[in-house]
Write a structure and sequence with these properties.
178 residues, alpha+beta, 7-stranded mixed sheet, 3 helices
Length: 178
């Protein structure tokens, strides 16, 4: 009897996880300051365009649309600032009980990177930069499952982040930064 009940629960949860959910596209604004101190205490500097592109890549991979990211500070022409101020506006799917033509479902994502000897990831994402951006950005999405592992203690750091995010149904089945 217990195994039958357990089997029904697993089956029900599996069918719920893959079912389409009515969603609306919600415009979202986020503003935050990126700290430029790594876990090992070392100060790092990023060019504004590098931070912008990294934030855009994370948002795209999580299923955001209509993305607009602006960064002030960091390293630029005639400027070296210990902080980067990030402002982003984007649309994301939000579950609704109302009538809608849009559908969403929980889809897997996988962000992983390891620095090469040159100090950059094969996917172009620095461990500290990813960790600090993802820490804020993830709070704006419906994430059903999340597993995070970071080792950003040196310029040869690595990260592995996996989960499931509510995405628009037409966004595909799997997103990755690899």
């Amino acid at each position: 009897m217990k195994s039958l009940l357990l089997g029904l629960i697993v089956l029900a949860s599996a069918s719920f996880a893959s079912a389409d959910t009515p969603v609306v596209a919600e415009s979202t604004d986020v503003s935050f300051t990126l700290r430029h101190i790594r876990d090992d205490g070392a100060r790092v500097y990023y060019a504004a365009d590098v931070v912008e592109r990294a934030a855009e890549r994370i948002l795209e991979a999580l299923g955001a649309t209509d993305i607009n990211v602006r960064v002030r500070g960091g390293v630029g022409v005639g400027e070296v600032s210990p902080f980067s101020r990030i402002r982003a506006r984007f649309s994301r799917p939000v579950a609704t009980t109302g009538a809608t033509e849009l559908l969403g479902s929980f889809q897997e994502f996988d962000f992983a990177g390891r620095n090469s000897r040159s100090g950059s990831f094969g996917n172009g994402m620095d461990c500290h930069l990813f960790k600090e951006l993802f820490r804020v950005i993830k709070t704006k999405f419906a994430i059903q499952y999340l597993q995070e592992s970071y080792r950003c203690y040196s310029s040869f750091g690595r990260f592995d982040v996996r989960g499931e995010v509510l995405a628009f149904a037409d966004a595909g089945n799997f997103v990755s930064l690899q």
